[in-house]
Specification:
Elements: H1 12-27, H2 30-40, H3 47-62, E1 71-76, H4 82-91, E2 105-109, H5 116-126, H6 139-153, E3 157-161, H7 182-193, E4 196-201, H8 208-211, H9 213-218, E5 219-225, H10 232-244, H11 256-266, H12 270-286, H13 294-305
Parallel strand pairs: 1-4, 1-5, 2-3, 3-4
Helix pairs in contact: 2-12, 5-6, 6-7, 11-12, 12-13
Length: 317
Amino acid sequence: MKERFDFGDIDPIEAEESAVHERRLKQYSHESLQIGALVEQIYVMFPEFAMCLEACDRAFQLSRTLNTPQGILIRGAPGTSKTTIAKYFIHSLPQSDLFEKGVGALLIRLRPVPTTQQVITALLRAMKYPFTSVRRNNIHIMRDVAIDSIRQRGTRLIFIDQAHCLAYQSGRTRHDATETIITDLLAELMDAAGTSLCLLADAQFQELEGLDRALADRVTVRENLSHFKNDELWAAFLKSFAQQTKAIKMHCLLDADIQNGTFTATQGNRRKFRRLMVEAALVTAEAKEVAVAAEHLALAFSRVTGSASELPNPFAE
């Protein structure tokens, strides 16, 4: 016999929504989430990260000062901190009279098959321009609006995330009066607005020279990002992360077994590492503990990988 439930005067849909809300509240408290957010904001200045930042600093400083465009190509596999570099750079910019607040450096992201309209729209939105409708019949007008806005407001560096999608740009084979391909737009942006450019691309992206020689001639600096190996640099990275974490203690990362287990869990992928550490902080805080331990990492690993994961839990006893 099918079991019947009597909700009384409670609407079944409202009862279900209430149960879902209650379940979410039971997962992590507001205080725990605050601690997790603080852990997520930690940046470790490892050598490759520092070299990329130095290249960005140089391009930013020389932008608009010299007539020669400054371009950078940073390549790396997913999870090697390409997007993090852009966000860190933008967040760490000091205020200046040389550019309007919030637009000294911009970050836009390309779609898998990007169009010129999409890029112009992304630039206008990044500039917080009030009108961002770009269509085929007004593309040249809106392109000029975007370039003029970037020049007038003092933007000095633009990060293009997922830049390897340029290999699949729409209209790549067409050069006519009605459409400009994206690489043309980027080269024009550097020349007309005087802004520097930083392309963030997959490690396999090798096509810039064959894609557009004019843009490649402007993007001359090359930097690479890679996943960590389980060596002394990995140990130093974990030590620095633990030392910077103030919201909750993570000195367990100094233990050799935990270091090995953390590498097994993440394979040196910094996005996976950050996700694991944030989850471990949430688990620890929710348990009313002040320091992350192996059992917290074990639970965190199971939560970030899921019950169907084929990966063994490196922190399980």
